[in-house]
Specification:
3 strands
């Protein structure tokens, strides 16, 4: 995820200060990792340095001064370019789950590798149930539903892969250890 571009997108609707940007990020991307305040302010500093945002005033609400930032025309153009660029499918498998399964198959006996896969499948299934409950709850927002749908699709793909791999454990183990 490009934090810079997400912040530019959140500023497209008007000037905001760092706290508002963090809150908007965490509300609009509820299934994403929450942003740290330090990350928000460091990113805003880079965006300002690059001419993509400018300070748009300060306010004080019972605490330190809060600088609001606004998108510049150059910032809007950068945001538009980013939105117009299609994300290429991942060229490599970069997943802790994949790496752990491969290592388990390399170093463990067939039963231990199978036990790991079954435990992982159980954890994925439990998370799938949690997300399904979240998106069907009466209080679910569209942000919740979209985020849950994205996560559910990925969990479903992982579950199908775990199932297929479970079917192949004995053959893979024989191939690796022969």
């Amino acid at each position: 995820m490009s934090t810079s571009h997400v912040l530019l997108g959140l500023l497209a609707s008007g000037a905001r200060h760092g706290y508002e940007l963090k809150r908007a990020h965490d509300e609009r991307l509820p299934r994403a990792r929450p942003l740290a305040f330090g990350q928000v302010y460091a990113t805003l500093a880079r965006l300002q340095r690059d001419g993509l945002v400018v300070p748009a005033g300060q306010e004080r609400e019972g605490g330190p001064d809060r600088t609001a930032y606004a998108l510049t025309a150059e910032g809007r153009a950068a945001l538009d370019r980013w939105l117009a660029t299609v994300e290429p499918p991942m060229p490599y498998v970069a997943s802790t789950l994949f790496a752990k399964v491969v290592v388990a198959l390399l170093v463990a006996d067939v039963d231990r590798a199978r036990d790991y896969l079954i435990a992982q499948r159980r954890a994925h299934t439990a998370r799938l149930r949690e997300l399904t409950a979240l998106k069907t709850a009466p209080s679910a927002t569209l942000d919740d539903v979209i985020g849950a749908d994205f996560a559910i699709a990925h969990l479903d793909a992982d579950l199908r892969w775990l199932h297929t791999t479970l079917d192949r454990v004995a053959d893979w183990h024989r191939e690796v250890h022969s």
